[in-house]
Design brief:
mainly alpha; globular
């Protein structure tokens, strides 16, 4: 357990830094409000649990060894992120109560985590780079997943609330639109950076 402080610092840096998941949560909070984007938040967190399990089991390496799989997964991820950024950018301002607005939902958040390249890289580094329980591999992995899930949930709630608070600070429709478009552009930039890394 002497590795726990270093593990927590690394996990906070990797999970809390701007990336596709965190920026999409902030954007969803800004575009739709924290309460309406709660299902999306739960999907992102549970999707990251699935990413941890898949990464710990070594299935990512097997999938990426299949010829053409990397290109197919990258294309699917890029298409989803473009769709999500578009819907965030064109979402009516929170002050527009008369419009039909469909926030991102659980399945969208879960899917985002499954196609997020930053998520796999971060989980691979954290799961393989630290040992919390020596000579008990299964217990070590379960403890890491439990700690990471708690930390990821807290960080993601903070990003969602930050996005919602930012938009609520700017009540006029024009400024809301600028915030939504800025989040959409930041989301696409974070995806581009994650794919280039």
């Amino acid at each position: 357990m002497e590795s726990l402080p270093g593990f927590l610092v690394a996990a906070l840096a990797l999970a809390g830094s701007p990336g596709p998941a965190t920026l999409s949560l902030a954007a969803a909070g800004a575009a739709f409000g924290a309460r309406r984007a709660a299902g999306y938040l739960v999907g992102v967190v549970l999707g990251m649990v699935a990413v941890m399990i898949v990464t710990a089991a070594g299935l990512v390496g097997l999938l990426l060894a299949v010829p053409g799989a990397t290109l197919l997964v990258t294309a699917a991820a890029a298409a989803y992120f473009l769709w999500l950024a578009w819907h965030i950018a064109v979402a009516p301002p929170l002050t527009d109560t008369g419009s039909e607005r469909r926030p991102p939902h659980f399945a969208g958040g879960f899917g985002l985590s499954l196609i997020n390249p930053k998520g796999y890289a971060a989980m691979a580094a954290l799961l393989s780079g630290f040992v919390l329980v020596r000579e008990r591999f299964e217990l070590d992995v379960m403890l890491k997943i439990a700690v990471l899930t708690s930390l990821i949930a807290a960080v993601n709630v903070a990003w969602l609330l930050a996005g919602a608070l930012l938009t609520r600070s700017f009540r006029d429709a024009r400024t809301n639109r600028i915030v939504n478009v800025a989040f959409a552009v930041a989301l696409l930039a974070s995806v581009a950076l994650a794919l280039l890394a």
